[in-house]
UniProtKB/TrEMBL annotation:
It comes from the Eukaryota. GO terms for molecular function: methyl indole-3-acetate esterase activity; methyl jasmonate esterase activity; methyl salicylate esterase activity. Residues 13-250 form the AB hydrolase-1 domain. It comes from Taxus chinensis. Pfam families: Abhydrolase_6. GO terms for biological process: jasmonic acid metabolic process; salicylic acid metabolic process. Gene3D superfamilies: alpha/beta hydrolase. This is AB hydrolase-1 domain-containing protein.
Amino acid sequence: MGTGKSSGVNFHFVLVHGACLGGWCWYKVADILTSAGHTVSSLDMAGGGIHPAIADTVLSLQDYNRPLTDFFSALPSQDKVILVGHSAGGFNLSLAMEQFPCKISAAVFVSAFMPLSGTTFSDDLNQVLSRIGNFGDSIFYNANGEDNPPTSVTLGKKFCKEFLLQNTPSSDIMLTESLGRRFPLWQEAISYSDESYGSVRRAYVVAKEDKLIVEELQRKIVADNPPQMVYEIEGSDHCTFFSKPGRLAE
């Protein structure tokens, strides 16, 4: 992402977590960036981290994205940030790019979904499922009854170790198991325009050893919705901020 050490240029990075995590997951990257003189905001989306919302009550992407919306609403009009999102956080980035394009200098998708307008989170989740087969010991919850789509999910410990965290230090695996929360599963499609979303420069970071959103799927995501820049991180599992934080911060 660019530490700016050599140029002396300082930026404001806004970091958005993926499913079942929170702003805490960026702690290594945030430390590197702040040590280089940058400003970092690591936000908790609704129901993530220490946010008080319960996943089954978060019924829409707009609800889930409310903390990011509130952040941008409070940001002075002359300020711009570099918006960084991981995994499911790509939906948060896409919505924010549509709503606040003038406040985002660039959006960085880290082994993330980069949804096409008119698609749903379930559409992207099904692309993952078609490649890995199942979600193992993860638990899906149906607060509205078994005849309706699931409303939230908890990712299983075994599943995470195999598909998300295989290159992650054991201490960060323990942290994830201790702090992980249910993730809300909204159903409506995302919608955005070329005029707003399309005006923001995008970069995609390919995690080469991601076993959840596998490299082939990441390449498809990039091909379907081409960003201006594509980077690769060798040796990174799905959670690049744990397995390769230094490379990501670069």
